[in-house]
């Protein structure tokens, strides 16, 4: 495992000339030259390559395979270029999905959250793509390039490191992952394709043998493709047939990508934990997180007293401000407050570490100590002063960071 070295201590690469400059890092796409944040940035003329050291460390598909005198401090140039190509394929796939009729362009992808990417992958896995040629091609590319594995791995790493609760898995997908697809019975709600769903409904609601046989005759090509074409001699046969169609369409059709997705989720032992604690993970993966409110934000932060300020001093203003935010009487949102104090606009699945705290101090402006998840708030004479200072500081801080 590669050790984490300081930017100053990064050993010089002895192979070929290099220069520091404003070129774009091939991994993160940034021109920033900030060693404290990105590590040392170097441009290698002979390889036509610019890279940040920390970007190399954080890339999931590359590791040091060479000696310290080879490539970039042990990272081989061929490996770096392969990683760049792999990342480009992920971006192209997201571009294919996001641009289908939605007017988005590739520049928007830079601002995409990992959650959005995973939603895209999940949608591709569960939707019926037979009706759209571009989606069929994209699905085949995803399988060929092993992108379902990448999606599962991204979700696993995100969860372990305090990322957002995905909240978009269907119950059927979750059960396939945890209990195995052979033990799952899909329902009509799992069928995204309108035509397929209507066909299944017609078969299910046939009220006599003649109408059932007529329906089956009309959709015999679909049934043959699904491996469900068979003689029907009694009306009750429709129940078994509907179940077989659902299993074929919802589960068997995605066997390869589903298995690849499962393997990706097994990164860092996440899938194993899902199987050990299905109820806990179901709430994280299948249900959207609870909307932030004045009550749960208040409960999230523990108020600590200081040597010269009592615990209750300022607490009333804080509670009043949360009520204003909840009622829409503030330009700041609960997500803004959370981002200002912790650096995250959501509550991580594994909770905050350390737990968020509040201190009321004799200071002019609020301070968000994100390293400690501590919100330091000023003591003011009136509530309006408190509110004005909070709005000004939090809003401007968030705006500057977003710019």
Automatic annotation (TrEMBL):
GO terms for molecular function: ubiquitin-protein transferase activity. Gene3D superfamilies: Zinc/RING finger domain, C3HC4 (zinc finger) (3.30.40.10). Residues 134-397 form the HECT domain. The keyword Cell division does not apply. It holds the Pfam family HECT. Keywords: Transferase, Ubl conjugation pathway. It comes from the Eukaryota. The keyword DNA repair does not apply. InterPro entries: HECT_dom (IPR000569), Hect_E3_ubiquitin_ligase (IPR035983), PHD-type_Zinc_Finger (IPR051188), Znf_RING/FYVE/PHD (IPR013083). One of its GO terms (cellular component) is nucleus. This is HECT domain-containing protein. It comes from Hirundo rustica rustica.
């Amino acid at each position: 495992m590669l050790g984490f070295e300081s930017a100053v201590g990064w050993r010089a690469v002895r192979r070929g000339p290099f220069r520091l400059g404003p070129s774009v890092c091939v991994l993160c796409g940034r021109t920033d030259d900030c060693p404290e944040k990105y590590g040392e940035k170097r441009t290698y003329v002979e390889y036509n390559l610019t890279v940040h050291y920390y970007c190399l460390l954080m890339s999931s598909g590359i590791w040091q395979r060479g000696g310290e005198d080879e490539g970039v401090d042990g990272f081989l140039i061929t490996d770096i270029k392969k990683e760049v190509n792999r990342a480009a394929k992920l971006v192209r796939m997201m571009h294919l999905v996001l641009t289908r009729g939605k007017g988005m362009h590739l520049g928007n992808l830079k601002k995409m959250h990992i959650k959005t990417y995973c939603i895209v992958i999940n949608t591709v896995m569960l939707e019926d793509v037979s009706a759209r040629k571009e989606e069929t091609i994209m699905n085949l590319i995803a399988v060929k390039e092993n992108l379902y594995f990448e999606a599962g791995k991204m979700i696993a790493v995100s969860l372990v490191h305090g990322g957002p609760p995905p909240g978009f898995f269907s119950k059927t997908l979750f059960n396939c992952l945890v209990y195995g697809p052979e033990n799952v019975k899909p329902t009509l709600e799992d069928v995204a394709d309108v035509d397929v769903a209507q066909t299944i409904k017609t078969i299910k609601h046939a009220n006599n043998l003649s109408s059932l046989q007529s329906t089956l005759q009309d959709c015999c090509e679909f049934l043959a493709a699904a491996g469900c074409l068979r003689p029907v001699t009694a009306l009750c046969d429709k129940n078994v047939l509907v179940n077989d169609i659902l299993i074929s369409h919802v589960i068997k059709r995605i066997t390869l990508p589903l298995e690849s997705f499962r393997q990706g989720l097994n990164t860092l032992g996440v899938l194993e934990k899902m199987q050990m604690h299905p109820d806990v993970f179901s709430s994280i993966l299948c249900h959207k997180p609870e909307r932030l409110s004045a009550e749960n934000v208040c409960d999230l932060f523990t108020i600590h007293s200081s040597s010269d300020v009592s615990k209750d001093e300022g607490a009333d203003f804080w509670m009043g401000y949360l009520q204003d935010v909840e009622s829409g009487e503030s330009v700041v949102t609960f997500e803004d407050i959370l981002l200002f104090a912790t650096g995250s606009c959501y509550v991580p699945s594994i909770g905050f570490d350390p737990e968020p705290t509040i201190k009321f101090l004799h200071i002019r402006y609020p301070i968000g100590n994100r390293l400690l998840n501590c919100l330091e708030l000023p003591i003011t004479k009136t509530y309006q002063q408190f509110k004005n200072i909070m709005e000004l500081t939090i809003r401007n801080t968030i705006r500057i960071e977003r710019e």
